[in-house]
Specification:
With 155 residues, this protein is α+β, with helices and mostly antiparallel strands. The chain has two domains: 59 residues; 80 residues, Glutaredoxin (3-Layer(aba) Sandwich), CATH 3.40.30. The chain has seven helices and four strands. The protein has a four-stranded mixed sheet, with helices on both faces. A hairpin with a 2-residue loop joins β3 and β4.
Length: 155
């Protein structure tokens, strides 16, 4: 059963617990190998299954700076795309990235359903917060729901 105490503890734990690092995929809209890889990842639902965040470099200065920063951190000097970064590992190229992912475990996502009692309690909490016209309460409620989902995802 979810209650205010559990939600408070979950919020406190989430503040002190770091979220697992995602894989970073650098691509360019003008790169045919990137397009092939992106289609493969999408078709096989691998963006979600491996927690891959894509950074498009074509016409995106912020992503280019991230690319350069990560390349420098890893002593990566080839400057190519597609480039996958996973922690200290970097893999360049469509086929090498596919082969690398094939050797990595996918994230196991659990099905999650709130009981009717949990839904009622969450609704009660949200109603209390919205009835006091507290905008911060709504934001906190959204954060709590996200935190609960992340905690369940981590199991």
């Amino acid at each position: 059963m979810l209650n205010k105490f559990f939600i408070t503890i979950a919020l406190a734990l989430s503040i002190t617990t770091s979220v697992s690092a995602e894989m970073m995929l650098f691509t360019s809209a003008e790169c045919s190998h990137c397009q092939d890889l992106k289609e493969y990842l999408s078709t096989n639902d691998l963006y979600k299954n491996y927690d891959i965040m894509e950074y498009e470099l074509f016409d995106n200065e912020e992503n280019k700076l991230i690319y350069l920063e990560k390349s420098k951190e890893l002593n990566y000097t080839a400057g190519g795309v597609p480039l996958l970064i996973n922690g200290e590992d970097y893999i360049e190229g469509n086929n090498p990235i596919r082969e690398y992912l094939a050797t990595r475990p996918q994230i196991e996502l659990e099905k999650f359903t709130l009981t009717t009692e949990d839904q009622s309690e969450l609704k009660e909490i949200l109603d209390e917060q919205s009835s006091t016209n507290n905008k911060n309460g709504i934001v906190i409620s959204i954060i709590i729901v996200i935190i609960i989902a992340l905690m369940i995802k981590r199991r």
